[in-house]
Amino acid sequence: MNPLSEGSSENWYSDETEISLALNDLYRTYLWDFETNYTTERMSDNWTQRQAIDAFAAGSINSEWSRSEDLWLNTYKGITRANTILNSLDNAQGRVSEAKVKQLAGEAHFMRAVFYARLIFYYGDVPYYTGYLSIDEAFDLGRTDKNIILENVYKDFDAAIESLPVSYGSNELNRATKGAALAFKARTALNMSDWAVARDAAKACMDLDVYSLHPDYEEYFYSRTRNSAETIFALPRSFELGSSWTAKNFYTRTAGGSSVAQPSWDLFCAYPCTDGLPIDESPLFDPCNPFDNRDPRCKMTFVEFGTEHLGFIYDPNPYTTKVLNVSTGKKVNNKDTRSVDTYASYNGLTLKKGVDEDWTDDNETDFDIRIMRYADVLLMYAEAKIELGEIDASVLEAINSVRARAYGVGVSDVSAFPAIAATDQVQLRKELRNERRIEFAWENRRFDDLLRWRLAEKALTRPIYGLLDPNDLKEKVIDKELWFFPGVPEIDEDWLVDFSSMYSEGVIKQLVERNFDKDRQYLFPIPSKEIMINKNLTQNPNY
């Protein structure tokens, strides 16, 4: 019996409105939680939150970890809805045009592919089904080999690619397209180290010739930037439609925010100098002026000290107890230094990327949730070719196009930016990986990269560092003219930073330890609730 509050598969999905309503649910943010609100950034080495740490980075997750429970439950909700749509489309025959049915089926295939791809990446083998399940059948379903699921995921993507249009028009940003299906197929293949599939899907997306890099990197992330040619798939927010996001935790205290979390020192040190070299190799790096001579995305991601931000001069120096209110011309208490406000940034840094005045008027913003953009396709194509050993001019052009955009120049103007010219696979892999990190900082991409590159066991076992407490900071750093960085940290072969020498000298503070467990955390735990009700469902190792 079907609940009276819901349409059944027998009497629902019979016209375009009903099918579209069902599909619309698959675009709701609760199904895309790992892509929103900096969720996976919190679990990566891009994140600092005073002296708190996410359970994943702390190594304390178990089979009752709420984030895994929610991800599992919501992803299977999406799969079930996509299955129901695909298995009910016959109801629309004769009532909806064949072309429209094809497009709607394409969207459902796309969603099912994305959701199963997510599950096999985070959990490995998982229950797989494409039809209707009774309660008893659901409780008896075991785990299917992830490689079998992957082949079916590719089939779903291919069905979506064949069925979906290249575009719908400027007002349909939220609907899946042919380009989105190709791009997500590439991402899935990259996550599964299926390099040839990733290469071909990314190249096919590029060959659609409908996407391009937004001219201005910084501008792209503001809420006012809508429907950019760089955006391949996004979930739109809109104040008019009652969809916004609470931003208070992520902007400065002087401007009215709470500054709960900051981009990490690890991320700050990842940006190369303008000669393309890491900060421990470049003669251009000055630890007392660490924003100078850096890749332009550094100043676009972090607020530079002494500059205006959200109407105030930003300066975390504990001696700077007053700062200028730019609009009034008067000095106000500097709540962004810990000598004035205990809860100011513990590492002195604050987020600039995407932050603008619309965050401060009511602590709400409605920027689009960008889940796939063209820069990612370019770098996925380059990575797949590098791993295949197919290093050619197209690889360098893909990477350099992304980097050149950051410098505001054309890719051919190699004298105006540090163009990558390396053809050695090891060196190019290192450059590509760091390019991804700084290009997609605080866009929920770093966490997945750490998992698939098997770098989490290094990046997430190093401590999180920050500034000394105010009095010690004044005495040991500022009074000795060592502000801001009291030294040059070491950058290793994976472009990961090592602060141990600075810490041993007593000039920085360890905020909290990371304890990623490589013997279990490369896969998430199956929620214990699922194990308890299904005798055929086994747990991942060491949980």
TrEMBL record:
Keywords: Cell outer membrane, Membrane, Signal. Gene3D superfamilies: 1.25.40.390. InterPro entries: SusD-like_N, SusD_RagB_dom, TPR-like_helical_dom_sf. Residues 37-189 form the SusD-like N-terminal domain. It is found in: Cell outer membrane. Residues 244-543 form the RagB/SusD domain. Belongs to the SusD family. This is RagB/SusD family nutrient uptake outer membrane protein. It comes from Pontibacter silvestris.
